[in-house]
Amino acid sequence: MWNERYATPEHVYGTEPNAFLVSLAHRIPPGGKVLCLMEGEGRNAVFLAGLGHEVTAMDGSEVGLAKARTLAGQRGVSLQAMHADAADFTIEPGAWDGIVSIYGHLPPPLAERIHRAAAAGLRPGGVLILEAFAKSQLGKGTGGPKDPAMLYDLEILCRQLAGLRLEIAREVEREVHEGRHHTGLGSVIQILAVRKA
């Protein structure tokens, strides 16, 4: 499905980074090793590489990652593109200064495994930055999964990130303008979580 969605000349979620990520990117340790989960066409990974981070963009779509590599070349930055299905992907414990998940929606059991692994994957002082559509996004028609099971619940997400210090953990409504699939008022969950030093 994702290969089909990305098989177009345009970047379907745009080429500019997510606004929530931009507002918090300074919290990632300078020159840090950063993992971007379910990164798609690379807009966020390329942005972080441009800040001097060592970035790995992971996604299950070869087409999306090819576009990520092209965008990186156009912006004069380098990143590692890792083709992997989330169900088979292992986040190495204590390996990352930053982990980013922007609209990385997964089925509930897999989402829990990935979120717990992301929490364990941070080095001391490392940060997790996550934005995703909330359950209340259903029916808005401005983006996100149509299956309510794939939308996220703030309380459940916070439990899955046990062991991290949650500096931001909120559900908000905001205007989302990220390509033609994320356009308009959206109900989103925003997380900034830190592994204690």
What does this structure look like?
The protein is α/β, with parallel strands linked by helices and 197 residues long. It is 27% helix and 31% strand. It has helices at residues 2-6, 19-24, 43-50, 62-75, 108-121, 154-160; strands at 33-37, 54-59, 80-83, 96-102, 122-133, 165-178, 182-194. A 7-stranded mixed sheet has the order 3-2-1-4-5-7-6. Helix 3 packs parallel to helix 4. The longest helix has 14 residues, at 62-75. The mean pLDDT is 96.
Q: What is the terminal separation in angstroms?
A: 40 Å
Rg of Cα set: 15 Å
* Fold-level CATH name: Rossmann fold
Q: Which CATH architecture?
A: 3-Layer(aba) Sandwich
By helix and strand content, what is the structural category? alpha/beta
Q: Which of globular, elongated, flat, extended, rod-shaped describes the shape?
A: globular
